[in-house]
Design goal:
Elements (H helix, E strand, L loop, with lengths): L32 E7 L19 H8 L2 E3 L2 E2 L5 H10 L3 H4 L14 H7 L3 E5 L15 E3 L10 H18 L3 E6 L15 H7 L22 H30 L6 E7 L14 H4 L4 E3 L8 E3 L3 E2 L3 H8 L14 H4 L10 E7 L5 E8 L3 E6 L16 H8 L3 H12 L3 E5 L17 H17 L5 H7 L7
Helix pairs in contact: 5-7, 7-11
């Protein structure tokens, strides 16, 4: 990444904080604000700064990356909206928080918002509200629904509501935590055929740039078919609108003179809604374009290739704010990676799928390193047919209709899988050649099997007995 902008803000400019009880934060904490901006189903490689060649696709996010740190090996914990977002706010794996699929967390699980409210913070959320449940566990002081934001797809509405939120926080004398969630580029994409008229109206509104099929790129894990390319053009139109939403949120922050004292996070809750991405455990399912901007704290325009996970968000925020740690978290703070260290926080990352938005159960587990990934598909039995949201789109239908035998082979694999998958990302970054039976990789496969078993056993994973029954794991020692 080549940086052209070096006018980075200096100094934290801390202001007085009112209402913070003693003992909640350690001595010496500051009144930093936290702004978390999320995209909905945006692939990790859809930004200009992450290598996307689509013209002018994400100027605002590219500028944010030039002012901050970009993580090239960040993964969300689950490639489905609710468990992914719940992992962010609880620091726990889905089976430990209760949010296995579209489920509420357990009432005895601590949340980041509870810690922040106890510390005198003002908590706000914009769109995707229902995906953090139950509501009372998240202590929202300001609660703006997607309907108030053009279905979560109106950049100007985000500007208006963010401006009002920032003014309210300033007048209250409290620091704030704001989770501003765009619903772009979630389906329906602009121009797609949609039966629900309200959804269609929102999908097709507030568009300043419409991409044509010849302008876009098709991800390497999908075949470059005409209908796939057409749908990708619709997707990138939504990506660009999401970028404009980010720009409007940051504009409101800047106009309220809050940039210098606000740590900004940006990420996507999971990968693109296409086959082999969303609702799976592949690299492109969980890889997320995590960007962190902390004015005056570190040299801008830096890439970090250390593994970080969605469950690391809560402990990282608490660490940034110098708060006392919450017990029982599965994640670890990556504050040291923000302040100069290049040492890995993790050597592995775990990702999970249990059930889809339709309540269909397709349990999967994945353990990955920077080079290798191992996937356990508990549902795969040679008979069960996989089903998920992306299969209703043009891309998958085009794949099914294709006469190309290679495409047909990929469709069959997508529908049935195998109980185990193993990939070498150095030679196969898009995870298309399953090496699970390759003898030359036996040692690496057994190592990941053993590590996955250890994680499942130590966290009482409900898939543990199925894993033990179906997978031969070498005995240690």
């Amino acid at each position: 990444m080549k940086c052209t902008r070096r006018n980075f803000l200096a100094g934290l400019g801390a202001t007085a904080v009112v209402g913070i009880p003693s003992g909640v934060f350690s001595q010496g904490s500051t009144s930093l604000n936290i702004l978390l901006i999320t995209a909905d189903d945006m692939n990790f490689d859809s930004l200009g700064v992450t290598g996307c060649t689509v013209p002018d696709i994400t100027p605002n996010l590219d500028a944010l990356a030039e002012e901050g740190i970009r993580f090239t090996q960040a993964h969300v914990t689950s490639a489905i909206c609710q468990p992914s977002r719940s992992a962010l706010m609880t620091g726990r794996f889905p089976h430990r928080s209760g949010a296995l699929g579209f489920d509420p967390i357990k009432l005895d699980v601590p949340t980041l918002q509870e810690s922040l409210r106890a510390a005198g913070y003002m908590n706000g959320i914009m769109a995707k509200n229902e995906h953090l449940a139950p509501r009372e566990k998240f202590c929202w002081d300001v609660y703006i629904t997607a309907a108030e934001l053009g279905g979560g797809k109106d950049p100007k509405a985000y500007y208006t509501h963010c401006k009002a939120f920032f003014k309210q926080a300033k007048s209250s004398g409290k620091p704030f935590f704001l989770m501003a969630n765009s619903t772009d580029p979630h389906r329906p994409f602009p121009g797609a055929e949609v039966a629900n008229q309200a959804k269609a109206d929102n999908a097709n509104a507030n568009i300043s740039r419409t991409y044509k099929p010849e302008e876009v790129t098709v991800p390497p894990f999908l075949p470059d078919l005409p209908k796939v390319r057409e749908e990708m053009a619709q997707y990138y139109t939504a990506v660009h609108r999401c970028d404009e939403t980010v720009g409007q949120i940051l504009k409101a922050l800047r106009e309220e003179d809050l940039e210098e004292n606000t740590v900004v996070f940006f990420l996507s809750d999971n990968g693109i809604s296409q086959p082999f991405a969303k609702t799976n455990c592949y690299f492109t399912s969980t890889a997320t374009p995590l960007i962190v901007r902390w004015p005056g704290k570190f040299r801008p325009c830096v890439n970090r290739n250390a593994l970080v996970s969605g469950v690391d968000f809560m402990p990282t925020v608490l660490d940034i704010l110098n708060a006392k740690p919450v017990k029982g978290l599965d994640g670890h703070s990556y504050l040291s990676l923000l302040t100069g260290s290049t040492k890995n926080t993790h050597t592995t990352a775990f990702t999970f799928i249990t059930s889809t938005s339709a309540g269909l159960h397709f349990p999967m587990r994945c353990i990955r390193t920077k080079r290798y990934s191992y996937v356990f598909n508990a549902w795969s039995d040679g008979k069960t047919t996989f089903r998920n949201e992306p299969m209703g789109g043009m891309a998958f239908k085009a794949m099914q209709a294709s006469s190309d035998p290679n495409v047909a082979k990929r469709v069959k694999f997508f529908l049935y899988r195998t109980p185990e998958e193993f990939y070498d990302l150095r030679t196969d970054p898009w995870e298309q050649k399953n090496l699970i039976t390759e003898a030359s990789y036996a040692k690496q496969i057994d190592t990941l099997r053993s590590q996955l078993l250890e994680m499942m056993d130590s966290t009482n994973d409900p898939l543990l007995e199925q894993f033990r029954a179906r997978v031969t794991v070498p005995k240690s020692g």
